[in-house]
Amino acid sequence: MSMYGRDPWGGPLEINAADSATDDDRSRNLQDFDRAALSRPLDETQQSWLLGPGEQKKKKYVDLGCIIVSRKIFLWTVGSILVAGFLVGLITLIVKTVPRHHRPHAPPDNYTLALHKALMFFNSQRSGKLPKHNNVSWRGSSCMDDGKAETGSFYKDLVGGYYDAGDAIKFNFPMSYAMTMLSWSVIEYSAKYEAAGELNHIKEIIKWGTDYFLKTFNSTADTIDRMVAQVGVGDTSGGSTSPNDHYCWMRPEDIDYKRPVTECGGCSDLAAEMAAALAAASIVFKDNKAYSQKLVHGAKTLFKFSREQRGRYSAGGTDAAIFYNSSSYWDEFVWGGAWLYYATGNNSYLQLATTPGLAKHAGAFWGGPDYGVLSWDNKLAGAQPIQTDYPGLLYTTRHPFYEIQDNSWVLLSRLRLFLSPGYPYEEILRTFHNQTSIIMCSYLPIFTSFNRTKGGLIQLNHGRPQPLQYVVNAAFLATLYSDYLEAADTPGWYCGPNFYSTEVLREFAKTQIDYILGKNPRKMSYIAGFGNHYPRHVHHRGASIPKNRIKYNCKGGWKWRDSSKPNPNTIVGAMVAGPDKHDGFHDVRTNYNYTEPTLAGNAGLVAALVALSGDKTTGIDKNTIFSAVPPMFPTPPPPPAPWKP
Question: DSSP alpha helices (H): ranges in 313-464?
Fold first, then answer.
């Protein structure tokens, strides 16, 4: 049987059943066909049909331990990195070798340089266990037993805090004032402190003080009935030869005599001042919520105590009456109330601080030659003579009482300038604002409220000793008020019919601080360690006695007190009491009216320096002080009385 078909390649296709063969025959036939085909050359396409895909090359890899990558990719990556590194190095070399023509950074101004040194004074005044970074080589830990000998008391110990001046007494009243001033300066000028690299330092200084304050009363209680007024005594009246902080001339590290603790149960002025210090510091440390709240609680407790148990801390012939007498507590009520309002936002404190009767008692409207001046208490002028802190000299008082009413008016003027609380505060705040303007006018040379020395130093204490502490406070307030006005887009203020620009206030502050820094008839700086010509016989025990591993006893240090040689240790940053009304200065260690520094004086100096330092365009921080103050929605005034015919 045969079948015919069409061969697609041309010709007939015949499939013959008889031609079928076995598998072996067909295999041999196919092999013959293959040999015949291979005898002719084949193109690539035909070869690929017959031979299939060729054998591929085996890829190579690199084992990096944690990952296996292609060797080709690895080589490309390494090569790229090397080339990039070479290019970066070449560019860096070119940039460094090509000379650059740009202006170098301006050196720090004198105010910034003096600020660094003025802050170091507080390191020199520290009491207690000093930190390793205190950076005053001639100081060490001291008075580590303060307050520990008292049994059954409300305090565990009173270690820490600051020595007041050239002695080793811890007067809590001026110490509180100093910490308040420092905190205020940080709140207003934190950006300037940071630019000077001193923000952490000033915060550490403040915390050293506030940590000590929290030891001086039961800071965990809501109500207290006593607090500590001071540690140590200095009264040598009546010819007493008992060892104390004024009779003896010793390094604080060598003190071995008993240091009594003075407590008070009716001390409104001290309690309100310390409340202000804690409240202001709580704003400084607002980022440390736990510590800030601790400070606020302590401030509330102290202020409540000051209001409930009225009295002056220096009453009754205490040691404080000799050195830091206080004649009233009304101004501290205004000052403390204002700071507690800023720290808490509680309107009850603002209502108290703006009570017209309280302001009247505080002397807001009295006038007089010392109006608006951080000055001695007027009653001190008639104090009977007492022994000084060294035998043979008499004096009436060594330290001033710091009236703080002008600080309060400036502080409360800030509220009116930036928040405008309106009724019912507007009338009294406008009065405070007007009083502030009058105080600022009194600083200007055109007015005759205060004399000036021939060298230009304003005599805010009318020629009495120790003038510089008042001058630095006035310089701070003038600069601060100037910055307030500029931040409120107010170009100046009126003194009567005449308008004065804010620059006039800043210029006043500059001339006064420049005098202290050396632009004076004597061409000397009144800050130890600043400039080439400064006081070398500062009235200060620690600075005047060498650190030579010899312990000088109570009287053994007298030879250093009476020596005419310069102090072996420079108490860097200490602003001395200052020149007399004729620009004269006696660099004599035993004359404290010229050569003794104080905490309160240096706090004012630091505040003035930071306010003037750096770039003028870096003004105040308008908002931080109001962090806790809620939005103010003024209460509308009451409607007028009905008309009666």
Answer: 319-323, 330-344, 347-353, 356-361, 405-418, 426-442
Per DSSP, what are the bridge partners of residue 5? 13
For residue 493, give the nearest of 544, 437, 540, 452 by alpha carbon. Answer: 437
Q: What is the Cα–Cα distance from 216 to 159, expressed in whole angstroms?
A: 10
- Which run of H or E residues covers position 204? helix 199-213
Q: Among this protein's residues, is 587 annotated catalytic?
A: yes
Through-space distance between the first and last CA atoms of the chain, rounded to whole angstroms: 147
- Give catalytic status of residue 539 as yes or no: yes
Of the candidates 332, 539, 540, 580, the residue annotated as catalytic is 539
596 has catalytic annotation:
yes
Q: What is the pTM of this model?
A: 0.80
Proportion of the chain above pLDDT 70, given as a percent = 80
Contact (Cβ atoms closer than 8 angstroms) between residue 201 and residue 215: no
Pick the closest to residue 576 from 566, 563, 586, 568 (CA basis): 586
| Phi-psi domain of 363 (left: phi exceeds 0; alpha: psi -120 through 50; beta: other) | left
Catalytic site residue from 150, 583, 587, 621: 587
pLDDT of residue 639: 85
Helix (H) or strand (E) segment spanning residue 602: helix 599-612
Task: Provide the total of helices (H) and of strands (E) in the chain, helices listed first.
Answer: 20, 11
Catalytic pick among 167, 198, 254, 319: 167
Element of type H or E holding 612? helix 599-612
Structure confidence by residue, pLDDT tens digits, 518-562: 999 999 999 999 999 999 999 999 999 999 989 999 999 999 999
DSSP string, 448-459: -SS-B-TT--B-
Q: How many CA atoms, within 13 angstroms, populate the side-chain half-sphere of residue 139? A: 30
Helix 599-612, helix 172-195: angle, nearest 10: 20
Residue corresponding to tokens 């290019």: 87
